[in-house]
TrEMBL record, chains A, B:
<dbReference type="GO" id="GO:0003677">
    <property type="term" value="F:DNA binding"/>
</dbReference>
<keyword id="KW-0238">DNA-binding</keyword>
<dbReference type="InterPro" id="IPR000843">
    <property type="entry name" value="HTH_LacI"/>
</dbReference>
<feature type="domain" description="HTH lacI-type">
    <location>
        <begin position="9"/>
        <end position="64"/>
    </location>
</feature>
<keyword id="KW-0804">Transcription</keyword>
<keyword id="KW-0805">Transcription regulation</keyword>
<dbReference type="Pfam" id="PF00356">
    <property type="entry name" value="LacI"/>
</dbReference>
<protein>
    <submittedName>
        <fullName>LacI family DNA-binding transcriptional regulator</fullName>
    </submittedName>
</protein>
<dbReference type="Pfam" id="PF13377">
    <property type="entry name" value="Peripla_BP_3"/>
</dbReference>
<dbReference type="InterPro" id="IPR028082">
    <property type="entry name" value="Peripla_BP_I"/>
</dbReference>
<dbReference type="InterPro" id="IPR010982">
    <property type="entry name" value="Lambda_DNA-bd_dom_sf"/>
</dbReference>
<dbReference type="InterPro" id="IPR046335">
    <property type="entry name" value="LacI/GalR-like_sensor"/>
</dbReference>
Length: 353, 353
DNA sequence: ATCCCGGATCGAATCGATTCGATCGAATCG
DNA sequence: CGATTCGATCGAATCGATTCGATCCGGGAT
């Protein structure tokens, strides 16, 4: 890589060879300021001759105080973060507003003990994606660095621009639909409650200690309608986890079985449905299933899921825009998005006894 | 953001306040070199008092010549790149070797006219992911920057470490299975042939101009067994695209219909199967379908796909390792992976007339 | 002929750290 | 007791650009 005989050319070298000062050469590459056509050509020729690839991004970043990199902090493993289509939609939105504008997106799978040290990552701003309360410490570090911070569905944090979703209210409306249909025994399948991602029945103690904001908000919404609803927490937002949760809730004597399940993501809902099918429980005749997200399940389940459709791409765009606003020195306004209940074919009145 | 009355603290400021030189303060944060316990404490206290978040990553990068960022260049839109589970598996592998080691992954959705200027992105190395020949120019830019380059399944490029897959040979083995089963009329559903992602029948002209390496290699492998095989190119690796391709190939008079379809990804295969189901064509009795990748389809299709399983996570790990080798000053060895034919339930002898 | 203006260029300061070699005092060794 | 060594600290150079203010020069206005 590093060849002593042939060091990497620098702006200074190019300038020397072109017979101009470094400042003038800089102007040629940055485009700022007037440069005579002849000079410009001479500099570019010198650059070509030396194999100069343009100003060093790192040096430029230091001087300009901008790296062009936006961090996206998630609490999942790298691949898992994008395994749920809802996050892909969000990424699409971010891409439109940031990647297309020349910003690079730096994915930072954060964990309490992971190798990533958020204080040492070169970036201009950070987007916190589905982050739990555990991240609070890291938020402080980032704030000390004076980085603009945008959080997507996080507990309110001072100085962090919030991009929110009506998680509680939307779930409440979904639950109300179920109640109006006549359901009384409803169970929840929640997203992971904390970084441990424990797959286990909900208990007051576990809910007390939960750190995942979105999961708790959605639980809150469901309880507004069904105060006593129990359920289980899944180990992630996947069909497989939904299936496991479904088995746990449905493989019981029919009298104990819920007549409806409120799942906190469409993938979980799809897994629940699969569990029901396997146990010979008809959906929606014997079991209603409510999802969340409104992603295209694209054949993962033959049903049209009754679900709460959230504007995920919009959410991503809003986050991207907020970042750009902040970088432009303006104060971004927090945005709240609303989900819409989409009546599918997986909710119906409970079976009559 | 920038508060004139309260400028962001620097190492120099901390050092001054602690009554030591900047060099000593630097040692405290970098851990290199011996520092007396009392001094260390004093510096850390000063840092805390000033709200210093640690050495500025940009300045550190300039001085050290390392940013800790690895670019991952794809030719897809941000979200699309990760919509195919095969890439997620790859990401998992990359994550293990890079993210877990403290490197950040910078996703760069490259397109000829996109905002991303690869010459201006701060990074230590780049991984080229499923890149077509169109990227050649950008590769030059990156090489001028003397960045270590690792390409996953790309045409051989001088100075670029290749992580390869037996695309042609694997497809050939899959095709041979079909021939042994008795198939003679076989059609292909390929990945996009170029950046245009045109959805259209394969023609010699289009294949001539194709720039997508993997797609062409797999076509080559199929043609080794079925020299006259025609087919269509899809607009992406998705179930929806596979469905469209399937309709195009299958919605014809039975006599013209292929008895087997070689799809270049599992998602495409799943789409083909869906099209077949919809047209009342039984799989595998009336139509055999071969996939590629061996990803968990998790209920996207009820069949166990007959497919070529590629070690995707391993591929990612190898690429990550290659990057680390290169950054350590060693010369990474190119790696070639082999796919394995997995007999599923979607390939059978052709219908007898 | 004088004055002024603006385009082109340059010098020097700066961004915020890291690191090499030098210095200095105290402890160890023969 | 002098020489040596080691640990702790510091000064200065460096990484590679950007940018502000100053300078120089030719041409149009007066």
């Amino acid at each position: 890589m590093s060849d002593p005989a042939n060091p990497r050319p620098t702006l200074a070298g190019v300038a020397a060879r072109a017979g101009v000062s470094a400042s003038t050469a800089s102007l040629v590459f940055s485009g700022a300021g007037p440069v005579a056509e002849a000079t410009r050509t001479r500099v570019l020729e010198a650059a070509a001759a030396l194999g100069y690839a343009g100003p060093d991004p790192t040096a430029r970043s230091l001087r300009r105080g901008r790296t062009g990199v936006i961090g996206v902090v998630t609490e999942d493993r790298l691949g898992d973060a994008f395994r749920d289509p809802i996050n892909l939609a969000l990424l699409d939105g971010l891409g439109e507003e940031l990647a297309d504008e020349g910003f690079g997106l730096l994915v930072l799978p954060w964990a309490p003990d992971s190798g990533v040290d958020l204080s040492a990552v070169p970036m201009d701003a950070a987007i916190l994606l589905g982050c739990s309360a555990d991240l609070a410490h890291s938020v402080e570090v980032l704030q000390r660095r004076r980085l603009p911070l945008v959080a997507i569905e996080a507990p309110p944090l001072a100085g962090v621009v919030a991009i929110d979703l009506d998680n509680a209210d939307a779930t409440r409306r979904g639950a109300e639909l179920l109640r109006e249909l006549g359901h009384r025994r409803v169970a929840l399948v929640t997203l992971p409650l904390d970084l441990g991602r424990t797959r286990a029945p909900l208990t007051p103690a576990r809910e007390q200690e939960a750190t995942a904001f979105t999961a708790m908000e959605r639980i809150r919404g469901a309880r507004a309608v069904f105060p006593d609803a129990g359920g289980v927490s899944a180990g992630g937002s996947t069909v497989a986890e939904g299936y496991l949760a479904g088995r746990a809730l449905l493989d019981v004597p029919p009298a104990d079985r819920p007549t409806a399940i409120v799942a906190q993501s469409d993938l979980l809902a799809a897994g629940v449905i699969r569990a029901a099918e396997e146990l010979g429980i008809a959906v929606p005749a014997e079991l209603s299933v409510l999802g969340f997200d409104g992603v295209r399940l694209d054949g993962i389940t033959p049903y049209a899921l009754t679900t709460l459709v959230q504007p995920a791409v919009e959410k991503g765009r809003a986050a991207g825009r907020a970042v750009r606003e902040a970088l432009a020195g303006r104060t971004p306004v927090p945005v709240s998005f609303a989900s819409e209940l989409r009546a599918g074919t997986t909710a119906a009145p409970p079976p009559t006894f």
